[in-house]
Amino acid sequence: MGVSKELNNGILIFIGIGIFFLTMELLGLSDVFWLRMLNIFIVIYFLNKTIKSNYQEGKTEYLDNLISGTLTSLIGVVLSIIGLLVYISMKGGDAYLAKLSQNFLFGGGAPSMNQYCIGLLFEGIASSIIITFTLMQYWKDRPVKHF
């Protein structure tokens, strides 16, 4: 039995976001707000891939696809936050976090590593649900085509 498409695409979201942010950090662009927002396209791509695959397999029930899409994005978000927590820990923990730009999530203060990651987790879950519902609106009236 193979890995489910939800788990596979969730892992690909994690890898894509990880590569994206590591590349931005290597290029010294990790503090550019609008560039950090581009990770949404990675989530959209792999989430759409999951839902499209369901439609290709003849699975067109709205609730089933909504659950499948939500599961895919949540796997990607949770793995990404775990990866971020490990990365920040490896780079020096709270001391490294203090160097990061604060304008993305927290407008002031000095959040701890755990507070930062929990805040991003909630933000990631909310945006994932919004993206899932948006893609479901796109796919709900599509005729079933077998590619």
Can you characterise this structure?
By secondary structure, this protein is an all-alpha fold. It has one domain (5-139). It has six helices and no strands. The chain has helices spanning 5-26, 33-36, 39-56, 62-90, 94-99, 113-139. It is elongated, with a radius of gyration of 17 Å. The model has no long low-confidence stretch (mean pLDDT 85).
The shape, in one word, is elongated
Low-confidence stretches: none
Give the amount of beta strand, in percent. Answer: under 5%
Largest sheet: none
Overall structural domain count: 1
Number of contiguous helices: 6
Structural class by helix and strand composition: mainly alpha
CA-atom Rg in angstroms: 17 Å
> Could you give the count of β-strands?
0
* Order of helix and strand elements from N to C terminus: HHHHHH
Mean pLDDT: 85
Q: Fraction of residues in helices?
A: over 70%
Distance between the termini: 23 Å
Which keywords apply here?
single chain, 147 residues, mainly alpha, 6 helices, 72% helix, 0% strand, elongated
Briefly say what this structure is.
With 147 residues, the chain is mainly alpha-helical. It is built from six helices and no strands.
Topology (elements, then pairings):
Layout: H1 5-26, H2 33-36, H3 39-56, H4 62-90, H5 94-99, H6 113-139
Helix pairs in contact: 1-3, 1-4, 3-4, 3-6, 4-6
